[in-house]
Structures are given as structure tokens and as C-alpha cells.
Amino acid sequence: AARWTHVGVPPADPILGLKVVFRQDPFTSSKIDLTVGAYRTNDGEPWVLPAVRVATERLLTADHEYLPIDGLPAFTRATQRLMYGDDVASAVTVQTLSGTGAVRLSLEFLKRFFDAPLYLPRITWSNHFNIARDAGFADPRTYAYLDDATSRLDFESMLADLDAAPDGSIVLLHLCAHNPTGVDLTLPQWEILADLFARKSLLPLFDSAYLGFATGDLDRDAKPFRLFFEKGLAPWACVSFSKNFGLYSERVGALHATVRVEERDAVLGHLKKIARAMYSNPPAFGARIVSTVLEDPDLYASWLDSLHVMSDRIFETRGLLRSHLENATRDHDWDHITSQIGMFCFTGLTKSQVLELREKHHVYMLDNGRVSMAGVNTRNVEPLAAAIAAVLE
Ligand code: PLP
């Protein structure tokens, strides 16, 4: 007899599900994939970073023994320095199953040991809501982020919402290159926010999926975390190396928890206990690649170059898309295309326009109008702008 009739088919994931639909679209020569946030070259191809290629060759003879529960020590040390600079004494770090795993592990810990509500930006990476719910935050609260009318940050409302949060709440912040909006706080705004966090003892949980990818400059991108750290706000960070190393499938990430020295053993011990039950220990290969690159001066320099290559291409493509849209449309302001930063462009298109683009023009972006800029290139930018213009008429 059928066992699973009560289960029902859940809705497809709004990001990865769309990628499947794209693959099935038979218009192979003209369809445009702007869905998943993975870097592509101007030829539309994935890019293995040169430093990653060299490190991979060096690792071909590595063994396949288990890593410790908290990961490869050389990796956790090197990734701490990326986030904290040299001041790592109060960092507890666990290697995680990429950024997703870091968010999950942190929320599992916080649910068990920190009795406080969780706040997410009202608009955010859709998986944040899934992870929060599965970690036991049944009804995550939200704070204002984007002003829909202008596609700019609504900083006043953001401050007001967080001011109204119970003292001691957990607040997830995007470190840089906010997904999906591409809209970040300015440094003076981060300063104001930090003062609010101090006054209300809020726990800052930085999602850092795009370190170095926003501006191409690691220190600049890490600044909000360091500012909160220097102000004594004990920030946590969920770090992904998917985008900045192009290691999407290797699941390389880290959770950094800033704690007092006397709290280290307890916090690390419980993070390890949770990880042991969820997946036992993390995969080694990607972490070895990252630590090899971070510890070798030549490979490190090559990686910094690659960060610039990727972020520069995104900057240039934004300019190109904006000028093509300005040519193709009348009375539309496309300034936000170039003022936003990072892999994503929040077009401001409505859901019905997005669906029309998909059905009539074979252009695939998320229902909320988010475009992965990595999918735009010199070949498809003109037809893309023409298609957007057509649905705006
Ligand atoms: N957080 C944000 C905001 C993201 O955009 C992503 C990936 O798209 C992630 C976390 C996690 O990615 P991964 O688990 O591949 O590192």
C-alpha cells in the first residue's frame, strides 16, 4: 500500500527550482539564465580560479582521513585572520558545510543556549527563513530593509524596527553585497547601527557569503564585522567560500563566534556536539584548497587578483546593462543598477513582468525581480535589455 500519500509535494525552491525549469526550456540558443548566484565568465562559463587549480594539483596525493569535528586547523586559523585581522584571541571557529551550514549551526546553538527572538531582514536570501524554521525559530521576525518605491535602503525604518526589538535579540545582517537587493549600508550607517546594537545588547550574526566579492577588497568588505568587533559587540560570522573561491560544490565555510576567553571551551564544545550529531565532521578537500591558497604568498596574491577580476567584471556589466536599458526604454530610472553592489541586481520588476520575461522571452530571473549579474555578458546584454523594455511597455 502507498505509504506517503499524506506527504504532498512541496513547492520547488524559488532559486534552485527555477534553474531546473531553465534547463528544460527548449529555446537553447536564446534563453538567458539569471537565476543562481554563481560566477560566470563573459563567455557564460564557470571559472576555476588559477590559485585553486594550482592548489588542487598539489593536493592530489592527500589522504582521505576524517577531519576533526571542528575542521582542518590550518583552515580555521587562516579564515579567522580573514575576518578578524590579527586579533583572533576571542574567536571560536568551526569549519562548516559552507555558508548554509554555518547559518544552520549557529542557529542550532543559539536556539539551545540563547533564549531570544531572531530578526531577519524583511527581504533576504530565501533560504534564511527555511534554515531558521528548521533550527526551531518557528516564526522568525523581520526588520525593514529596502524601500520598495525607490529600491534604496530604508535606514530609518530599519533602525526603528530594531529599536523596537526586545533587548538581547539575535539580528542577522548581511556583511556585504546584500542578497537579493545589492544594497548595503554605508560606513556611517554601520556606525549608527553599531551604537543601536550596543545600547540594546543585540547579538550581531553576520552572514558573510560575499567577502571580497563586493568590492574586490577583503579588508573593505570585512569592515562592518571588524567595526562591531572593535566596539565590543561580540559579533558572530557565518562565512562561505563558495563565491569568493568559486568552490560552490565543495561546501567550504566557517562559523566564527566571538566569545570571552573563559567561554571558549563551552561554546566550542557545544558547537562540536551539535555538528557531531548533524554530519559528524566536515569535508576536507575544499578546506585544504582554501588553506593552501591562504598560506602561500604567491597563491594568495593570485587569489586577490581573481577577486578583482570577478568583481570588476560585475561592475562593468552593471554599467553595460544600465546603458542598454537607458537606450531601450524611455522615462525609466536605471541608476540603481550601478549603485547596487555584488552579484545581484534587484531590478524592481514586478512578478507579472518577471513571468512574462520567462514565458515570452526565455529570460529567467527570480520572481522577486532579482538578477544574477554573473549571467549577463556582452553577448546577451542587448537582447536582455530589449526583453525588459518589451515587458515594461
Ligand atoms: N548566505 C547568502 C546571503 C547567500 O547568498 C548564500 C548563497 O547564495 C549563502 C549564504 C550560502 O551559500 P553556500 O551554502 O553555498 O556557501
UniProtKB/TrEMBL annotation:
<dbReference type="GO" id="GO:0030170">
    <property type="term" value="F:pyridoxal phosphate binding"/>
</dbReference>
<dbReference type="InterPro" id="IPR004839">
    <property type="entry name" value="Aminotransferase_I/II_large"/>
</dbReference>
<keyword id="KW-0032">Aminotransferase</keyword>
<feature type="domain" description="Aminotransferase class I/classII large">
    <location>
        <begin position="30"/>
        <end position="388"/>
    </location>
</feature>
<dbReference type="GO" id="GO:0006533">
    <property type="term" value="P:L-aspartate catabolic process"/>
</dbReference>
<dbReference type="GO" id="GO:0004069">
    <property type="term" value="F:L-aspartate:2-oxoglutarate aminotransferase activity"/>
</dbReference>
<dbReference type="Pfam" id="PF00155">
    <property type="entry name" value="Aminotran_1_2"/>
</dbReference>
<dbReference type="InterPro" id="IPR015421">
    <property type="entry name" value="PyrdxlP-dep_Trfase_major"/>
</dbReference>
<dbReference type="GO" id="GO:0005739">
    <property type="term" value="C:mitochondrion"/>
</dbReference>
<dbReference type="InterPro" id="IPR015422">
    <property type="entry name" value="PyrdxlP-dep_Trfase_small"/>
</dbReference>
<comment type="similarity">
    <text>Belongs to the class-I pyridoxal-phosphate-dependent aminotransferase family.</text>
</comment>
<protein>
    <recommendedName>
        <fullName>aspartate transaminase</fullName>
        <ecNumber>2.6.1.1</ecNumber>
    </recommendedName>
</protein>
<keyword id="KW-0808">Transferase</keyword>
<comment type="subunit">
    <text>Homodimer.</text>
</comment>
<dbReference type="InterPro" id="IPR000796">
    <property type="entry name" value="Asp_trans"/>
</dbReference>
<keyword id="KW-0663">Pyridoxal phosphate</keyword>
<dbReference type="InterPro" id="IPR015424">
    <property type="entry name" value="PyrdxlP-dep_Trfase"/>
</dbReference>
